[in-house]
Amino acid sequence: MKEKIADLEEKARRLRVAIVKTLHKSQSGHTGGSLSAIDMVCALYFHKMRHNPAEPAWDGRDRFVLSKGHAAPALYVTLAECGYFPAEDLMMLRRLGSHLQGHPDSKGTPGVDVCTGSLGQGLSMANGMALGLKLDGKENRVYAVLGDGELQEGQIWEAAMAAAHYKSDNLCALIDSNGLQIDGDVAKVMNVSSISDKFKAFGWNVIEIDGHDMGQIVAALDQAEAHKGAPTAIVAKTVKGKGVHLFENKASYHGVTPNDDELPEALRCLGCCD
């Protein structure tokens, strides 16, 4: 397992490099939240989820919902690494005519299960998928990544209530709790603490982790799959802009990309010099 964790950590590092390069090229997109979520997305695609890049619509795949759709670069670099489309496509992020738009587009991008970006809606969609799969007698699982600022949306809690009511134990929500949103500190904009207590109150199984500790992420995903009778919320404490000190814990890098002066230092931080 130690070797597996080390492999995932190295893959996450390379994916961070790809995020930084992609956003620098596009000069449009969301840096902070992509870097805070990438460890979890990496663990999902390369450790936990069943999926097939050669057959994106494979019926036996697990479903993934990036509810915080503005972190699309994290998903795109992961899909490219998996082989859903050529890595060269990343350099066309947000370009007119590109299949890689600012938020995930299930109609244009191979490997994307659902369009997201309107915050608060992703958990409802994930819950519907999970219920549908159960009604069909299938064992597929559904994973949704949410932002902590997104929890300010009331629809999240309607979905949380419904998922617990219907005992959707094939549903796992991962909360990217980096404490920041576009307008500043989540606690000051609209406090959502305690996230864990709220999900517990709604009847969810809750696991708290360090969202950048790959060992903890892998263990939590395995625990979530083993838990029966209730959906699981993995509340991950993360750092916005993780991996690059220029961007870390800065709300100003929510929707700002690396400029020409910042790129070399950002790549150096990530162990990349080209």
From TrEMBL:
Residues 12-271 form the Transketolase N-terminal domain. Its cofactor is thiamine diphosphate. The keyword rRNA-binding does not apply. The keyword Endoplasmic reticulum does not apply. Pfam families: Transketolase_N. It comes from the Bacteria. InterPro entries: THDP-binding (IPR029061), Transketolase_N (IPR005474). This is Transketolase. It comes from Geomonas anaerohicana. The lineage of its organism: Bacteria, Pseudomonadati, Thermodesulfobacteriota, Desulfuromonadia, Geobacterales.
